[in-house]
Amino acid sequence: MRTRHTSGSAVRAVLAAAVSGSVLLALLAPASPAPAAPSWQVLSAERASPRPCHTAVLPPHTPGVAARPVTATADGVLRARLAPLAGAEGDWDLAVFDADDGTLLAASAAPRSHELAETSVAGGRRLVVQGCRRLGPARMVSLHVDLLAQPPGSGLVDAAARTEGGTPPGSALPSGRSDYRYLHEYEYELKELARAHPSLVRSFVLPHPTVEGRDVSGVEVGSNAPHTANGKPVMLTLGLHHATEWPSGEIALEWAYELVRGYRTDPWVRGLLDRTRAVVVPVVNPDGFSVSRRAKPRGDFTRFDYENKRKNCSALGASPSHASGPCGANPAGRDRGVDLNRNYAGFWGGVGSAPQWYADHYRGPAPFSEPETRNVRHLVSTRQVTDLVSLHTYGNLVLRPPGALETRPSLDEPAYQALGARLASRTGYRSEPAWRVYEATGMTEDWSYWATGGFGFTLEIGPAKAHGPYADAVVAEYTGRASAAGAGKGGIRQALLDLLAHTADPAAHASLTGTAPRDHRLRLHKTFRTPTSPVRGPDGSTGPPLQVTDTLVSDLIAPGGRFTWSVNPSTRPYVAGRYGRDPQGPAQPVAELANPPGLPPENTGFPLDPAADRVPFSVLGPPEADTGRMTVSVSWTSPRTDWDLYVIEADGRPVAQSVTGGANSEQAVLFDPPPGRYTAVVVNYDQTETDPDDWTGRVTFQSPLPAAYGPSESYALSCSDRAGRILGITDVRVERGERVDLGEVCARPARGATFTPARSGRAADR
Prior knowledge:
Elements: H1 8-20, E1 25-27, E2 39-44, E3 65-72, E4 76-84, E5 91-98, E6 104-108, E7 115-121, E8 126-135, E9 140-148, H2 183-196, E10 201-205, E11 217-221, E12 234-238, H3 246-265, H4 267-275, E13 277-281, H5 286-294, H6 371-382, E14 385-392, E15 397-400, H7 413-427, E16 430-433, H8 434-437, H9 444-452, E17 455-460, H10 470-479, H11 491-504, E18 510-516, E19 521-531, E20 535-536, E21 542-543, E22 547-557, E23 561-567, H12 573-576, E24 577-578, E25 591-593, E26 613-619, E27 629-635, E28 642-649, E29 654-658, E30 665-671, E31 676-686, E32 696-702, E33 708-709, E34 715-720, E35 726-732, E36 738-744, E37 758-762
Parallel strand pairs: 1-3, 12-13, 12-14, 14-17, 15-16, 18-36
Antiparallel strand pairs: 2-9, 3-8, 4-7, 4-9, 5-6, 5-8, 10-11, 11-13, 15-17, 18-23, 19-22, 19-34, 20-21, 24-33, 25-32, 26-31, 27-30, 27-32, 28-29, 28-31, 34-35, 36-37
Helix pairs in contact: 3-4, 3-10, 7-11, 10-11
């Protein structure tokens, strides 16, 4: 990360002041990968000044600024940290510059004073470490600077490999941005939005720092933003679970800018923000993203291709020989870490997640083992999140639960499918259940939806790359312009606005009404256990499911008199039941697929290259047969051979596929296939055996499963007065779209009385 600044006089002044004051630090790199003893100092500034710290080396005696020169005497990774001293917490930022030319090498601008700026350095390089007191009462902070030697074979991240810029300033995005941000820019812009718009935007820090000690921050946007417990329905937008998927963070932050701008200029957006709360966390995984964004481009997906790092920086599960060194310079390279989107409790440990620490899809040693997923869990568990969207790249897809084939769709499937189609109509993407694209367990929305009832989606942004050119992967996708699939349809911008409108719709959530004295706290509470998948082990064995305990707690501070509280259904989808239908005929018999004579040529370019085996088959309809699930499967002898499988309808449209590789079978599944003629297309992707390794296949049919209905659940509702004394507790049952009048919720019921809320029916029917 190199940004050149014309601040040579300021740098010279800092160095001169430092030499005269005898504060020059020499850091000696150790001979082993162990960290050197850090240098520790106190930075102080009498006044705060809300300016960016990372734009230039500021002259000595600038209000709010304290700088220290540093000389590195060996190659390695320099880490500068700020931490608050005992007493008041404030907002300090940190930047590291080259002392010779003022180049910015690293920066940190989190909302508090917990900062980490990290850069690779060569021995003899002179640096300036600059701390800036931005806001708050903390006059002093501690500065720790240490140098970590590069472990052998660690593939050190080259901080000088990237230059900011390269595209003309200004774009059609709400912020006008035209190139990818660095982590400190995300951090600074988030809190600057809150500072500039205090009644509309609230900045927050999530409770769990990352493995490297970074704060994870976000913003809430809505009218009267500081009042978080006001009962509005919530839409949560998440970016950068995966470090290399840079557009996901950009689009999340642009969404925050969009809402701030729209509140001033668009009456429709203003109306939505008067009725909802939009919560945005653009960088869920700051450790991994910082490494990826600073890395030298290689593009080969080898161990030290840090730019394509997917995971966080956890060393859990890694062998000791691979756990040493900082995240950006370690023997395991990008392989170290946990795939955060396989670490949630939703069906954790099953298909589509890896038990091996070095795998890209490593699930971690346990559900929620990572601080980053615990942060998202905290957000979802303490808010009534009506809609969640987790942004990813790539594939032009709108995905909804379930992520695993064997998990039947929930009773919400018709509404879920319709909402996904609505988002897809704006983006030009394909909308479908996640399992149909790739089976996976432990994903964000597979936990949040089944545990809370709030709808959740993954948007896979763009057609072909983790982070393509900014103009295509961000600007076009967000605004709905060429070259995006959503060109002329509104793009991701309009899809997110549609989702916020859905959040505001009373039919999308439940509503509790009643009366309560001013400033009394109403609390909804639920604790439950949910099983994971049967846990797959590294040796291929399968153990019993784990039981994961979740607690949902959300509050409403009563405004005095009547209130309305938008909440999720009291019965979790995991309990409520599964979607299905009654069979209208028997199951169709198994159909064997007749392999045509000969072996088609190897083909890695299907469908542009049409070479393949094609075998037609039919699906019968009622009353002769009724198919709820059709499975087309092919298998062969060696796992080193690779056949791909596609299922085509009579009009030539593909309706299912299986192209996993690395096994000796493929299965393509279709639920409720319409009766008619289909074709199994089997593509010879790779033949690695001396002798031809041909396939065998069949089609199996299962009858529809009738809808399954479970028991109803309730929330425990309590009311506390201003002193914290609980005045009453009762159970509340409410369904999606239902409006329940709780009456006077803080009145103590007479002994032996039973609370019966008044129900006004589903909101959609009113």
